[in-house]
Design goal:
It is a single chain. By secondary structure, the protein is mainly alpha-helical. It contains four helices and no strands. It has helices at 3-32, 37-46, 49-74, 78-99. The longest helix is centred in the first third of the chain and has 30 residues, at 3-32. It is elongated, with a radius of gyration of 16 Å.
Length: 103
């Protein structure tokens, strides 16, 4: 393996782990902030309040676990990749359920 390809490979791994950590931080802040009023009215008509509140908790827990997984991704752990992808997908669904957060 050449020096250049090793650098690019390391850069990619580090970038992905930092992006996962950023997603975890965004999840935590999003779970702590209230949903936008007009979006909340739409989702409240579709889902019961307990599901919406549960999605907020899932979003916070997912953010915490993403922060933990970012360190394992930095160290190139295979299981961390599988868990990170699964938690990111679960987090996306939770954001939609808690207030149509799609940004």
């Amino acid at each position: 393996m050449t020096k250049r390809s090793s650098f690019l490979e390391n850069f990619g791994v580090r970038l992905v782990s930092l992006l996962v950590a950023l997603a975890g931080i965004i999840n935590l802040f999003s779970a702590a902030s209230p949903a936008l009023t007009h979006r909340f009215k739409i989702i409240r008509d579709v889902l019961p309040l307990s599901i919406i509140q549960g999605a907020r908790v899932i979003s916070a827990v997912a953010g915490f676990f993403l922060l933990l997984l970012a360190f394992s991704l930095w160290r190139r752990k295979y299981v961390a990749r599988i868990l990170a992808i699964t938690i990111l997908l679960l987090s996306a669904l939770a954001h939609l359920a808690k207030g149509l957060d799609f940004e």
